[in-house]
Amino acid sequence: MAHIIVVGNEKGGSGKSTTCMHVATALARMGHRVGALDLDLRQRSFGRYIENRRAYARRKGLDLPTPEYRELPEIDPATLAEGENVMDRRLAAAMAEIEPNSDFIIIDCPGSHTRLSQMAHSLADTLITPMNDSFIDFDLLARIDPESGRVTGPSIYSEMVWNARQARARANLPPIDWLVLRNRLGSQQMHNKRKVGGALVQLSKRIGFRVAPGFSERVIFRELFPRGLTLLDLRDLGVERLNLSNIAARQELRDLMAELKLPGVTVDF
Question: Which segments of the chain does DSSP mark as H helices, in order?
């Protein structure tokens, strides 16, 4: 069975699609068969990223390792069983189509609470939650006391992950390995960075996730999207000498892939 990696966060602008594309492409470059689904049916940032990649590769005559992307199929409501949710059927049909030919499936969730997102979280073997490194985004995970800074309780999103874990336990499935990524770590505001880091460590012990640094804020990510490219593609384009920012970004990706601890994956780039 494919190992399912879900990338979820109910706040927009946290780098979910960038994370999805870089993890998926890194796995494909390492020789793994990678399937991809985008459950944000309106924005489709991950889906458009892959479409941009295929179009660019065709124009330039390049053979770029690319995840196999699938749209959710349309379902005739008349075929649903009594009480069956159409979104459940659409996701199940997409998974049934893509799983037999995949070692890994990357699922990008919308930045909102939806039925599809709930279902995807219950499928996750690995859950990646990118967050911008601030207390605004920390609110996604937990509520904190404004005076003491202590965590007072989980957020709605954390409760959804808890419910997904419970559903997997009832189905005798392995527990979710939950990784929270601290994206857009800046060099400034060190005091705030330490406070966010301390709160995350405290919360991780309470609700069971691992914390890892993600991607820093870099112009290169915005430049790569229109062509569907990732950091690992630069040398295919004839860029023999990477600048210091690009080298640092590749190291961030290498560290992330190692931190994920995915089965059968040896990070070799």
Answer: 16-29, 45-60, 86-98, 115-123, 135-138, 156-170, 190-207, 219-224, 244-260
Burial of 58 (0-12, 13-18, 19+ CB in 10 A): exposed
In angstroms, the CA 33 to CA 48 distance is 20
Tokens of 113: 């609470």
Residues ≥6 apart with Cβ < 8 Å to 151? 142, 143, 144, 145, 199, 202, 203, 206
Q: Tell me, what DSSP letter sits at residue 151?
A: E
pLDDT score, position 189: 58
CA distance 195 to 214: 17
Exposed/middle/buried for 259, CB within 10 Å: 0-12, 13-18, 19+? middle
Mean pLDDT of the chain: 89
The model's pLDDT over 237-246, given as tens digits with 9 standing for 90+, comes to 777 677 888 8
CATH homologous superfamily, domain 3-260 = P-loop containing nucleotide triphosphate hydrolases (3.40.50.300)
Name the residue ranges covered by the structural domains of the chain.
Answer: 3-260
1-60 pLDDT, tens digit per residue, is: 899 999 998 877 788 999 999 999 999 999 999 999 999 999 999 999 999 999 999 999
Q: Is the pTM of this model over 0.90?
A: yes
pLDDT at 188: 53
Give the Cα separation of 254 and 256 in Å (integer): 5
At 212, give phi and psi (nearest 5°). Answer: -145, 150
